[in-house]
Amino acid sequence: MNIKSGNTLPEEVLKAIRSVVGAGQISLHEPSFEGNEWKYLKECLDSSYVSSVGKFVDQFEKDLAEFTGAKHAISVVNGTAALHIALRLAGVKAGDEVLIPALTFVATANAVSYCNATPHFIDSEENTLGMNVNELQNYLSRSTSQVSGQCINRKSGRVIRALMPMHTFGHPNDLDGLLAISNDFNIALVEDAAESLGSYFKGKHTGTFGMLGTLSFNGNKTITTGGGGAILTNDSELAKKAKHLTTTAKTSHVWEFRHDQIGFNYRMPNLNAALGCAQLEQLPGKLVAKRNLFKKYEEAFAKIEGINLFAEAINCQSNYWLQTLILDKSQAHQRDLILEVTNKDGIMTRPAWELINSLPPYVSCPSMDLQFSNSFSKRLINIPSSPSI
Amino acid sequence: MNIKSGNTLPEEVLKAIRSVVGAGQISLHEPSFEGNEWKYLKECLDSSYVSSVGKFVDQFEKDLAEFTGAKHAISVVNGTAALHIALRLAGVKAGDEVLIPALTFVATANAVSYCNATPHFIDSEENTLGMNVNELQNYLSRSTSQVSGQCINRKSGRVIRALMPMHTFGHPNDLDGLLAISNDFNIALVEDAAESLGSYFKGKHTGTFGMLGTLSFNGNKTITTGGGGAILTNDSELAKKAKHLTTTAKTSHVWEFRHDQIGFNYRMPNLNAALGCAQLEQLPGKLVAKRNLFKKYEEAFAKIEGINLFAEAINCQSNYWLQTLILDKSQAHQRDLILEVTNKDGIMTRPAWELINSLPPYVSCPSMDLQFSNSFSKRLINIPSSPSI
After folding, report:
1. Is the CB of residue A36 less than 8 Å from the CB of residue A366?
2. Inter-chain CB proximity B218 and A51 less than 8 Å
């Protein structure tokens, strides 16, 4: 019961969301197509270039590089595929470990598994919802050794090859801190920027700090290609390798079929890239709309006790992909009731992901103490975040 | 020099192809969009369902099942992904071997590698361009043992878990023979029907004979979804597992994120399925057109000596995906000249794939004697095959 209003907290939350989103069924994040989508798709059909070759693939990659400031962008079939290839290019091999947050979507961990490597779970922190840099530094100092320029997990004996933070709900991690850890411990930094297209740390786009970064254009993301993703890198050699591995690794010849490596056929079709080109043109507008939505929610939730709207940290510009409420610890028990009340009323809300280390395929993976992730994962609620609201 | 005409063989071939395809630049296989493509894509945009959920995905899967006669069809992001999941569902594990033809596209072998298994190369035969059933039977009898109901390669000590024929250029393998081998040797039959949508063996659609089958809808295939593929099976349990593995293996809940396995996020987007629905409606017409094209080529090549147009075998109805010329052994040396003369003239032709066992990632894999594949791979030429010709 909220003393001031006489309403319960779930009722307060419902009322606050309704005051922003209006009446009716409201989804969590819905794409909108208000630009050249129509025109570009028609161009695809008319040209008959709908598949793995076509001008929209090249254009989309060029536009993505320009928007993010990465030297190279390589489009792929989805964000999971982008993660898989980025990890391989960062040198992740069978038997290695990769540091990832416990609080992330399962794809981050699955990509590690595709490399026959093992995820190693890292705690988060409350300013960014991302990796807890201080705790991670202490943890690595305590539990790893440097052997021949490689970071060895002393307990497992395995090489810790990569560090893959994820910019949660669009909020950038502390990239200064993560870069320092990457350098100090000889661990490649690969950014999972699936959720953070349009998010910046100290004015530089997420996904462009590490050796490689990845994006996702799934239907629920800020812009969509139906399904799609991209690999970002400033290293021209890695970009060439990314293109090679994400196709069938065919060597160049007019008619011969010679493949010099095991490729993954992760190419984004031209049809999907056409949608992407049109969507990317509208991205600046969508980012403004999402920031405005944050401000409206901020006002609506300002006076509700026991719950806070998550705001970008210092040095961070978030795309506010998913607007996020955080319950006070004392109110954590109300989470499921809030989810029930809102979803029953036609407003789609959802909790954070279950921590990956609790999922059956990953229960026995190594992990640092996950104190914050454990507490936090039970207190987060995502609320409707479409730019069209 | 062809004695009758006074022309060289390459000139004769060029003339024959031109007599069928007419003037201008002619590609090998071009998609055409003459039905509801436009309407369905617009429906996607208007509904905002472009991604992993939507009515076209369900419709496309239903239509595919109906067309092929398979009980279940599960759409995925491409044919390679379909192969990967089909092999996993057939029980292929790390350290296993999978029998595949040496004469196939590299994706067949790559899918085996994704399972951390080893391709084991099988020879082809000249009636079907597919697996040589008699030689395979002899080879397995000589070189394998049955241990606890599993087929063991005596030389490597590994389990031969699956048998994956590929229906080359649309021509069905001898499926009676392959089914018998599958039963006799306890090896799961998985059909790579990437090239054979609309091809039948004894009146039954390819890809529906084995435990699982796969299709491809790449831009060069008989119908296209931009990029896409499907898994076919008559086993409802396997179909359920295929759907689970090709998504993120999420267990069902309104808002919770619980994933009980490592999923692969291979979902076909609704946008691509929309294209597929429209294309599938036109498939019967395209098949008729491709058969007519075969007849025209048959006539054009009837009197040319030293080269033959490949025709469907007894009991087989081919979709004639790629029309195929086979040079007599005595004329094999002319292949590259024919490729040069035709490509230089603007007619896209190409040789068969290099045998997979000769590609760098696969040179050390086990193999039976590849006498026929070796001879054949140097004598095949694919010529323009679009249904719109």
Report:
1. no
2. yes
pLDDT tens column, B12-61: 999 999 999 999 999 999 999 999 999 999 999 998 888 887 899 999 99
Q: What is the pTM of this model?
A: 0.96
Task: Return the residue in B222, B262, B270, B378 with the most chain A beta carbons within 10 A, the one to mutate for interface testing.
Answer: B262
- For residue B270, the chain A residues in CB contact (below 8 A) are 219, 226
Number of Cβ atoms within 10 Å of the Cβ of A176: 13
Please count the other Cβ atoms lying within 10 Å of the Cβ belonging to residue A336. 15
Q: pLDDT tens digit string along B166-196? A: 999 999 999 999 999 999 999 999 999 999 9
B231 DSSP β-pair partners: B74, B214
CATH superfamily of A9-30+284-354+378-383: Aspartate Aminotransferase, domain 1 (3.90.1150.10)
Question: Chain-centre distance of CA A167, in angstroms?
Answer: 5
Domain boundaries, chain B: 9-31+284-354+378-383, 37-282
Q: Which residue, among B69, B58, B109, has the nearest Cα to B274 in the 3D structure? A: B58
- Token duo for residue A291: 């920031």
Topology (CATH level 3) of domain A37-282: Aspartate Aminotransferase; domain 2 (3.40.640)
CA atoms of A247 and A254, how far apart (whole Å): 16
Note whether A78 and B52 are within 8 A (CB): no
Give the tens place of pLDDT for each residue, B66-110: 999 999 999 999 999 999 999 999 999 999 999 999 999 999 999
Q: SS3 for B289?
A: helix
